[in-house]
Amino acid sequence: MSDAERLFESLARAIIDADETAAVQLSETILAKGFDSAKAIERGISVGMEKVGDFFEKSEYFIPDLLDCAAVAERATAILRKGLAKEPVSRGKIVMGTIFGDTHDIGKNIVALFMEAAGYKVLDLGKDVSARRFIDAAVQWKADVLAISTLMTTTRGNIQNVIEQLRLDGKRESFLILIGGRAVTREFAQTIGADGYAENAAETIRLLDKF
Amino acid sequence: MTDISPKERLDRALLGKPTDRAPVVCPGGMMNAAIVDVMNKTGHTLPEAHHDADKMSDLAFDVYENTGFENFGIPFCMTVEAEALGSAVDFGSLECEPKIQKEIFPSVHDAVYLPIGAIEKTLRAGSVIQAIHMLSAKHLDVPVIGSLTGPISAAASLIDPMTFLKQLRREKETSHKVIDYVVNQLISYAKLMADNGAAVISIADPTATGEILGPKFFDEYAVCYLNKITDAIHEIGVPVIIHICGDVRMVKPQLQKLHGDVLSVDAFVELKQLKTELGEMRTMGNLSTYLLEFGKADEIFNQAKHLTTKGIDVLAPACGLSTSTPSENIAAFTTAVKEG
Ligand code: B12
After folding, report:
1. Which of A44, A197, A201, B19 is the residue whose CA sits 20 to 30 A from B61?
2. ipTM of model over 0.95
3. What is the pLDDT of residue B2?
4. Pocket mutation for ligand 1, best pick of A128, A182, A184, A209 (most atoms within 8 Å of C-beta)
5. CB–CB of B66/B105 below 8 Å?
């Protein structure tokens, strides 16, 4: 194993352990030695976060762990970006939010984290987002996908409003619509004419990659 | 025991004493039963009743009368505490529950510690206390359940939840300090509820679900602080209901450590089995809220009957009801239980 590869591997480890000091030090060493930053991001950070995602799916890591690791990954990425010749190409632009009336956003935020880690650009509108705000943001930002979350049966009808409003605006075909959260199902997605549904963050990425 | 009052029945059930049958209740707070059907029928409506003590007690009475639940449950939301401690609240509408608009502190390090007693100084908490007082003085036989937002949910309504959850792992000392502060405020408020006639205190802590925290953090934060509140309420001789949301299978060993008089869990859990596994623990629950919203009345009736054979100490919806739940469905549930 080369010096560079050893550093990338240690970086992945530091991400998995959410060891911020080590991750920062390793990233700075990688930059200082002139090793390939893009490779460091891929083999260090992405590999580390993939492992974290695995642990999360297997219920070995929970949300506090996941968020801690993700924060370290973000910090290390910011350092390594300085070594990139150009910004990496995004795999697609996603406007995301929790639907109007609902403030449950933990799951939505986790999904957004996974999307970013997988190379998508995400504009997170937050929680309690109206149909108008979703559509205006998607149009302005020229998004490819609108990803909408809800955990409440009382508010899931509001997702349908987004789709209807898009139709009225003549823009339904401009975006893929992906929905998720405990209150919705694959069947519900079909009924309201959304393009996709995913049960969890990992499945969301698999679905996006197929689009 | 034929003439046992609803209050006596609930008290006995919570303390594990014999009763004629299990009571059927809905504690309020996260488990709010002020459904749209009831409000449309009686004209006492939300969001107004979140503020005013008279309206609050009128609506709590309407819920009692129209659903068949054998208690008054107030408040109707889980934002009273966080609002009092500084966060901005949007009071929602007839159908939509109040929600935290913005948590006041970005991180545990930014927390500002108000003197203990700050919750009950606010108008809205004052209305809750007053409504409890009016209902308990007027209806001696019906238990008033005072609902609290649990420590982790209340703390995560003050501090941005994503930062807060991360800091539970990274900044343990300050996280503990903040949660302990919230807990001391909750204790002071809960004691005032009890002093004013709340027969039972119910603590629901959705953000402390095992699915979010996992066993390690559940043990370190949820168990420890839920017990601190419970012990303080027990000191003044009032029983405590603890509700943990979601799938708790992951945290079963930790549940055993909780000091509450009954443990209420969501419909994922087979209560009969949980009871065997947890030894002494008394249980409450757990008719699926999805069944209550979307099922047919006769299905609900049968499922409720089935639950009454499971040795559950207190029957209740499995978690927070949707405000669109039809009132005839709830009536089917409570009727089935009362028929025994
Ligand atoms: C934590 C929690 C809360 C916290 C939320 C904190 C926060 N900032 O998010 C607090 C305490 C604030 C809260 C408040 C309330 N809650 Co709550 N809450 C929960 C609970 C226990 C867990 C949710 C959670 O975060 N899970 C963990 C995350 C990681 O999982 P997840 O959200 O499902 O996300 C995953 C997938 O669904 C998917 N996913 C999520 N979003 C998206 C989006 C896309 C596009 C895709 C593809 C995938 C995807 O991927 C995620 C990661 O794998 C649920 C119960 C449950 N079992 O879901 C109730 C629940 C959602 N709440 C409920 C209720 C009733 C309420 C209140 C109305 C209570 C009240 N009476 O005031 C209020 C809401 C007020 C409002 N208007 O918004 C009910 C909803 C009932 C209904 N009508 O359908 C539930 C179902 C519990 C119940 N039966 O009572 N709650």
Report:
1. B19
2. no
3. 61
4. A182
5. no
* Inter-chain CB proximity B217 and A64 less than 8 Å: yes
Task: Using CB atoms within 10 Å of the CB of residue B115, give its burial: 0 to 12 exposed, 13 to 18 middle, 19+ buried.
Answer: exposed
Measured between CA atoms, how close is A193 to chain B, in angstroms? 21
Q: What is the pLDDT of residues B207-248, one digit of tens each?
A: 999 999 999 999 999 999 999 999 999 999 999 999 999 888
What's the pLDDT score for residue A1?
73
| Both structure tokens of A39 | 């490779």
Is the CB of A182 inside a 6 Å radius of any atom of ligand 1? yes
Sequence spans of domains, chain B: 6-339
Residue holding tokens 């080590």?
A22
Q: Is A106 on the interface with B (CB under 8 A)?
A: yes
Write down the pTM of the prediction: 0.94
CA distance B244 to B228: 16
Architecture of domain B6-339: Alpha-Beta Barrel (3.20)
Average the pLDDT over A12-41 and give the result: 95
Burial classification of residue B12, based on how many CB atoms lie within 10 Å of its CB (0-12 exposed, 13-18 middle, 19 or more buried): middle
pLDDT at B281: 83
Provide the 8-state DSSP code for B143: P
Contact B161 A105 (CB under 8 A): yes
Q: Which residues pair with A178 in a beta bridge?
A: A147, A196
Collapse the DSSP code of A71 into the 3-class scheme (helix H, G, I; strand E, B; otherwise coil) and give the result: helix
Which residues of chain B neighbour A61 with C-beta distances below 8 Å? 214
Is B165 in contact with A63 (Cβ distance < 8 A)? yes
Atom of ligand 1 nearest to the CA of B97: 77
Q: Is the CB of A179 under 6 A from ligand 1?
A: yes
Question: Cα distance from B215 to chain A (closest Cα, Å)?
Answer: 9
Q: Is the pLDDT of residue B143 over 80?
A: yes
Going along chain A from its start, the domains and CATH numbers come out as 3-83 (1.10.1240.10), 93-210 (3.40.50.280)
Instruction: Please tell me the distance between residue B245's alpha carbon and the centre of ligand 1 in angstroms.
Output: 10
- Asked if B103 and B161 touch (Cβ cutoff 8 Å), the reply is yes
Distance CA B277, CA B279 (A): 6
Distant-in-sequence, close-in-space partners of B136: CB < 8 Å, separation ≥ 6: B144, B196, B197, B198, B199
B165 CB neighbours in chain A (<8 A) are 63-64, 67, 106
Can you tell me whether residue B172 is helix, strand or coil? helix
Q: Which helix (H) or strand (E) holds A20?
A: helix A20-32
Nearest Cα residue in chain A from B294:
A153
A144 in contact with ligand 1, CB cutoff 6 A = no
- CA dihedral (B109, B110, B116, B120) positive or negative: negative
